[in-house]
Amino acid sequence: MHQPNALSDAWEHYKILKQKSEQGDVESFKDILGKIQLLQIPATETQFYEACAWSVGKLVYTLTKQNVETSAWVYPFFECIRNIPFPKPSASYSFLFKSFFNIIKDTPFYLEFADWWGLDYFLPEDYQPVVLPQYTIQPLAYRAYMRYSKLLLQELHMSGTVRRDDFRIHEFQSRLDQLLQQYPNYDFLYYYKTRFLLFQGNMQQAWDTFIPFARKKKKDFWVWQLLAELSQDDDIQFACYCKALSLGTRDDYLVRVRTAFVERLIARGMFAEAKKEIEKLVRTYEQQNWKIPQQIQNHTKQEWFQRSYPEVHPEQLYRQYAPKADEVLYFDLPEQIVYVNHLNPEKGVIGFIRDKSCHGFFYVGEAKAREFHLGDALRVRFHEQAKQSFYQWVSLFPAPGHDYPDSFCKSFTGNLHLHASGRYGFVNDVYIDASLLKSHLSNKQKLTGRAILFYQQHKNKWSWIAISVEAIEK
Questions:
Q1: Largest CA distance in the chain
Q2: pLDDT at 380
Q3: Which of 6, 208, 251, 396 is the most buried if burial means most Cβ atoms within 10 Å?
Q4: Which helix or strand (DSSP H or E) is residue 18 part of?
Q5: What are the pLDDT digits (tens) for 284-299?
Q6: What would the mean pLDDT of 38-53 be, rounded to a whole number?
Q7: What is the mean pLDDT of residues 418-442?
Q8: What are the distances in angstroms from CA 305 to CA 84, 238, 468?
Q9: Cα–Cα distance for residue pair 155/173, rounded to 1 Å
Q10: Residue 120 to residue 176: CA distance in whole angstroms
Q11: What would the pLDDT profile of 285-337 be if each residue is shown by its tens digit?
């Protein structure tokens, strides 16, 4: 029972408590806390308990600076404070969380600590980034939920076994959903939300959750790794692993992806490619002084691994299949048939027309631009609206066999009028590009061919450009 002079006694104890926190004397600090708790100060004395929270955080920071081995004191100390009624939410309570977070965020103990502290008790400012002159620190709440998500998933898959804890998962998912509704810019939490849905077997919901995030992070290998896990289609899985391996990521980051890819190669009978990937895996494990997994060791003992094969080039394989993964990522965007009506290989740009309402340019790179010809039909998905007639594409494939629409294509016949430079010419109103002028063609020669519309922006008018020509007389 609370004694009349207990509060004044508690404040006297607090003066020593504060001193011990600054000294980093954890054992004396615990003894004083014990004396304070025996006084049974009511929780309504918020000023006193806020002061205690500040001192707890100060002690943790002091011990951290002194490089005291965390495992030797952190859990016994936590046991001493877990029943203290710290006011929450409050600045002192957030300070207490921050002091512990940096030293336990990579340990399983963090889950217990976060459950005790309560991730609903962050202050509004804890949800905002801290902007410093040289860099920006992510919001405390964001980092707290990120770490909780990662460690909870690890616990659910602990020691290779799956531990079902549906209530805990649903409870945390509900928190994640509320957080993401309020702070949609906490984008990496979509990754963990997807992982929880995948763990529960909610494949379609996991896919729908992850796709918008994946589009933002498509240059990161782990995005494609997770997309492979989300897909039920073997071809799509194969393409996603190729995409993940094509991004130039360090080999020591790719061991899980490469190991999964090896299994797909073996299943397809692509033993030369599988051997090449396994050899790269073994080199990576040896360079990092890591133990080579038994799974990889078993493969190296197989008869097919002992054979000699012609040289294979994994990068070519990745390039062959990776575009399929890009297509999957944007499956919900409409695919359109467009036709090449302009080529500028030096700048890596091609012009196109779908119809008079959709035409312009997009960048493909010099090497790819040289693969195209005027009049080629392409299957393309555009990511966003044009900016000054330039479009951004997300998937691009040849579309042979498509007929030319009469609305922007026509046949022509007439005499060739070469420019004095010999670099281009006209047949009536049809421009003949240098790429179509053959050495045996001469001025005034009669030609026939097909032409496609091209919009000349600088003249603000439509013109015809030849996509094929043929001499009909000399």
A1: 119
A2: 92
A3: 396
A4: helix 6-23
A5: 999 999 999 999 999 9
A6: 96
A7: 85
A8: 63, 21, 51
A9: 16
A10: 11
A11: 999 999 999 999 999 999 999 999 999 999 999 999 998 898 888 888 888 99
Q: Please, are residues 372 and 340 in contact by the beta-carbon 8 Å criterion? A: yes
Per-residue confidence (pLDDT) for residue 101, from 0 to 100: 97
Inform me whether the pLDDT recorded for 202 exceeds 80: yes
How many distinct helices (H) and strands (E) make up the chain? 18, 12
Helix locations, 24-119, DSSP H: 26-38, 46-65, 74-81, 91-104, 109-117
Cβ proximity of 330 and 442 under 8 Å? no
| Cβ count within 10 A of residue 267 | 11
- Joined together, the tokens standing for residue 387 give 């900016």
The pLDDT of residue 473 is 66
Q: 69 exposed, middle or buried (CB, 10 Å; 0-12, 13-18, 19+)?
A: exposed
Q: Which residues pair with 414 in a beta bridge?
A: 447
Long-range contacts of 285-289 (CB under 8 A, 24+ apart): 285/255, 287/252, 288/252
* Residues above pLDDT 70, as percent of the chain: 96
Per DSSP, the residues of 403-466 read PPPTTTEEEEEEEEEE-TTSS-EEETTEEE-GGG--TT--TT-EEEEEEEEEEETTTTEEEEEE
pLDDT at 46 over 90: yes
Return the exposure string of 156-194: e unless at least 16 CB atoms fall within 10 Å of the residue's CB, then b. Answer: beeeeeeeeeeeebeebbeebeebbeebeebeebbbbbb
Paired strand residues for 131 = 136
Under 8 Å CB-to-CB from 230, ≥6 apart: which residues? 194, 198, 203, 206, 207, 210
